[in-house]
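Case study.
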Amino acid sequence: MSDVTLTIDGQLTIVPQGATILQAARRLDKQIPTVCYHPHFTPPSLCRVCVVEVENARVLAPACSRIVENGMRVQTDSARVQRARKGLLEMLDSAVDLSDAPEIQAYANAYGAEPARYGAQIKRRAFPLFDDNPFYIRDYTKCIMCWRCVQACGEDAQYTFAIHRAGRGFDAHIATFENVPLPESTCVYCGNCVQACPSGALKPRREYWLEHGLDLKELARVSQLERREKSGDAK
Amino acid sequence: MAETKKIVATTCPFCGVGCRLDLHLMGNQISHVTTPYDDIVSRGNLCVKGRYGWDYIYHHDRILTPLIRRQAQQPGTRKPARRDDWREASWDEALEVVATRFADTVEKYGPDATAVFCCAKATNEDNFALQKMFRAVIGTNNIDHCTRLCHAGSVVALQMAVGSSAMSNSGSDIYNCDVAIVTGSNTAESHPIIALQFKDAVMRHGVKLIIVDPRRVEMVNFAALWLQQRPGTDVPLFSAMANVIIQENLCDNQFIYSRTENFEAFAKAVEEFTPEMAERISGVPAEKIIQAARLYATAQNGAIYWSLGIPEHTHGTENAFALIHLALLTGHIGRAGTGLNPLRGQNNVQGASDAGAMPWDYPGYQSVLDPAVVAKFRAKWGNAPPPARGLTTTEIADAWGAGTVKAQYVMGENPLMSEPNLRHAHHAIEQLEFLVCQDLFINETARYADVFLPSASWAEKEGTYTNTDRRVQRVRQAFEPQGQARADWKIVCEIATRLERKLGRAQTAFWEYAHPSEILREMGELVPSYAGITYERLEQERLQWPVPNLQSPGTPFLFENTFPRGRAKFFPLVYQPSVEQPDASYPFALTTGRVLYHWHGGTLTRHSNLDFAAPEAFVEINPADAPRVPCANDSPVRVSSRRGSIVLRARVTEKAAPGVVFVPFHYAEAAANTLTIDAVDPQAKIPEYKICAVKIEPATLKELVAALPLGLEQQR
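After joint prediction, the assembly is written out as follows.
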């Protein structure tokens, strides 16, 4: 494969064909913030926080998935890029509970995001807490729709396809098919989605109980009751 | 978010894949587990067992004090204990009882009246110490572990054909091949993380899988070809593939000429195995057999992966030979992306075998019959048993009944769940004079014990496991053992010291290890393939044995230039039907195996939250067969063989082939091994778990509930 020559922030660089702008930039130690992107997963290009300015392009390009081209001139931190990132992080912070996502909070601070300027009446994403299985808790109020869990469940790891997107627009969310409880879905509880979750929306049940200072003996008792319900005892 | 205090990197205690686990600790509590995305084994993925299944270590039923039976048990009237039948004892008292009883047995009946079951879940160091105690102090080779019940057929066949019984390549080597035969393996449930790599290799890298399995296992969804043979017909099926490869001259003649022997005799024997003959016996269309043979033989790199569906037969050794022949014919061995790969079940079944938990071999597969080997170990330890093979797991259980083995040591195993024909095994164990069990929980076997020694869990001790890739990996202590539990190797060393004194051994075999790293060092001095493996190196490296010296980087694949036995050997085969075939009174073939959520005898996983996901035993039955019972999905049925019967729920599913039913073996209340036959392979002594004849009748809910709740709760 041949190499590609491009300019990033005025710096000439040569990278292998097929590389993304993000990969090229990271080789030059350029810090581009990423939220939904994870090197282990197929870039979904959803959060747009990694956008950069490509000269002569109409719109900003997601660095995580845009493939480099010969002669490309890229600005990773221009005023337009900064404004876009600020807006995106502001909207995210105004709608989603980011309390378990310190990295994203740090980005929001760094770009001067002011979620409060949308006012107190702004609609926030709210979902019931799903505690329907013994292994992990789903708190979609904290979900930033980064898509990693869906990919871990699907073609990036498990090929189980227990979860996918439901709803549209602001109400889009991750759910099981027909919103059935996890034990009725195809979920095999591998927890690869939980490990991938960047914002604490998916959390091992044990970790959740420990964080909330709850009594683990009580957790054992609850689990035992659930086990009985599931088994022939209740039938 | 609360602060995570500490992260400890260790190795998963469940299956042979051996994924790296990072334990996130809050004090003495593991809050959750992750695995690095750049880990060479896990590649960032875990299954439910590694991710959540370790919470058994906190279960309230775990035993944390040594226990002794209040009432002395006599041979013939030995009874399973209820909770009240035990009393708590000090370590000193418990260890003294064990040492005294073993010393008495040795003095009265000789060393061969004792036997030990080592443990494929324990570390290399635990197993090395335990077999050393029985060889060096007691002087017997009656040492075995559950590998006898899983891969003995593969081990014997590989030893005879090539001279080394481990996987020749790695699980992740699937990416380097273009065609792989996967047979007798429900990979997605039994080796989930290798299965993820298989899936990825198929979907993203164009690898073609040939799945050969009587059940419609999940991997069939990813197969280029699925050969659904009748259980127990592997020899004709794979021999017919060999026949096609020879007939169509798809073999690697250069490889056969330069690296194998006995080809002519084999080629003659294989003539009768035409695809048509194999179709009659196995039910697989001849056309598919031919396709599979061509696909595998013409691959650039062809690999074979197999699991327990191959060895767990009375002709398990022959089944494994039939697979080995395919690799030898085509030269698909000795390169990356090829090889003969028996996927090992337990986290450390490879390591326990390497560490000498075997009746026929000292550590490192050095034969007990070789006088030079015996001399070498005697020189090191001061004592060694005479050059005679010890009893295997299955033979030991028979010897209890016959009264020839009087005192039994069990570390972490549960033979009363894992032996075939359990009713017979229960009767046999009653004849023991003394039984000591060392475990986390009082399982079905430990209920018969005189003394129970509480051992530390995998998170509470240091050590190494050797995974199915021959990769030696560290197990690290996350926190101190709970209660009075102690690491297995420490318990063993204590007993060995006392035994040595009681038996008046002139020279100590040495038991004053300060740390398991010293045990591994001793093992390295005695086992050439472990010579270059040290704890210091394991901090940085993930070594695959053989590692002959400190400079060696390990060996990702074996047999590049030569085989350990020189030339690999072909063995002419004949087809032997399995011992028990379905007939008019027992019309179904029963096959047994695992489910994703449980581990073997269930001692650990049935005490974890995993039990929620799979709380009940079931029998899988094909929709076409259900009206013959008759039964509906979820309805209670009674499954009976000539040896016993169990009541459990029917699961009507296409996963089962017509005429073949499947029962997982994890559930004490409906133990599959009540049904299985105790016929064994004459060479490997492995029982025929994978086929026996059963009948199925409708049962009532009342009968089903009578078996519940768990046996363990009934003890209270």
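Observations recorded in class. The longest strand of chain A covers residues 3-8. The mean pLDDT of chain A is 91. We will return to this complex in the next lecture.
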